[in-house]
Design goal:
Length: 231
Amino acid sequence: MAQARILVVDDEHDILELIAYNLRKEGYEVDTVQSGQKALEVIRGNPPDAVILDLLLPDIDGVEVCRRIRQNSRYSQIPVLMLTARTEDSDIVSGLEVGADDYITKPFSPAVLLARLRTSLRRSAGEDSPHNTAVLLKLHGITIDTARHEVRCGTNTVALSATEFAILEFLARSPGWVFSRTRIIDAIRGEDYPVTERSVDVQILGLRRKLADYGTCIETVRGVGYRLREE
């Protein structure tokens, strides 16, 4: 996606410069800020095509910035990639729960960051769906509208990140089938996507939490992977 405009938010100047340099080298336009408040001001004034957002910021933290992005319909669909120096599941899940599309732990490879950014931009543009056919999937009281990219549990709409939605859709299209973590990654991201199997576990954990009582239909098959239970 040439000439996409990326907002990078990090309070560490060296990291800002590293990310900006690599993005510009790939042809992206780049804005950089060092606080959550400034990031929100930029987004309100001229929404970017994607946000690379540090979790730990000196004023408004990355989780709160992401939450505010998702609460405003004008720019709620902007891909958000969370940067974090923390590796605890609770810290990562907190970002995914408020709608971050992906997370990258520090220290990171610029090549990995660029690959994940490209994937997020493709998904945002509708170019990277695991299935081309729009359908209405209904299982266990969960309704998945693939055309509207909408999930309802009973009568309540549930806000999922693009990655969470893709995982749920993938599992729901083949209820009862068990898929390895590697197979899930390949299906929703492409075979060259640089991600660890642990990332799938974190995404599943966040997805179950958002689905609340309905999340029990996503089963862990020990030593194999995950499946959506058949009705």
